[in-house]
Write a structure and sequence with these properties.
mainly alpha; 1 helix; rod-shaped
Length: about 130
């Protein structure tokens, strides 16, 4: 029996050693629950902000795609205009040569006019005689 009393007393002392730890756990338990609830609320708020951010990013991406498509169309129109201008510039020397040739021919005719006028005057004078 003494052995049982000794074991009982030993268990009693051991349980007395656990009292501060059990008390600390009992005091800490509501705080832990509060922290867990606060963390869960924070997580939910973060998820909501993340969803809002994702929606905003998707809208921004769609808007950017629209702007890029319009820019691409504008660049394509500008490229077509530049090609047309280049083609016109390539034809310009030929057009200038044609104009020069026409001026040269006109100059030749102008230079020949006095001779023709004199020839006509002589022919007219002969007819009048």
């Amino acid at each position: 029996m003494a052995e049982l009393e000794h074991q009982l007393e030993s268990a009693h002392h051991e349980s007395q050693d656990w009292v501060p730890e059990v008390t600390a756990v009992r005091v800490e338990e509501p705080h832990a629950a509060e922290r867990a609830i606060a963390a869960e609320r924070g997580l939910e708020a973060t998820k909501a902000r993340q969803a809002e951010t994702e929606v905003g990013l998707r809208k921004s991406l769609a808007d950017t795609e629209v702007v890029l498509q319009k820019s691409r169309e504008t660049l394509e129109l500008e490229r077509s205009a530049l090609v047309s201008e280049r083609n016109a510039l390539e034809l310009a020397p030929k057009a200038l040569e044609s104009v020069r040739k026409a001026w040269s021919e006109a100059d030749q005719e102008v230079l020949g006019l006095p001779g023709r006028v004199m020839g006509m005057e002589e022919a007219s004078a002969q007819l009048c005689e």
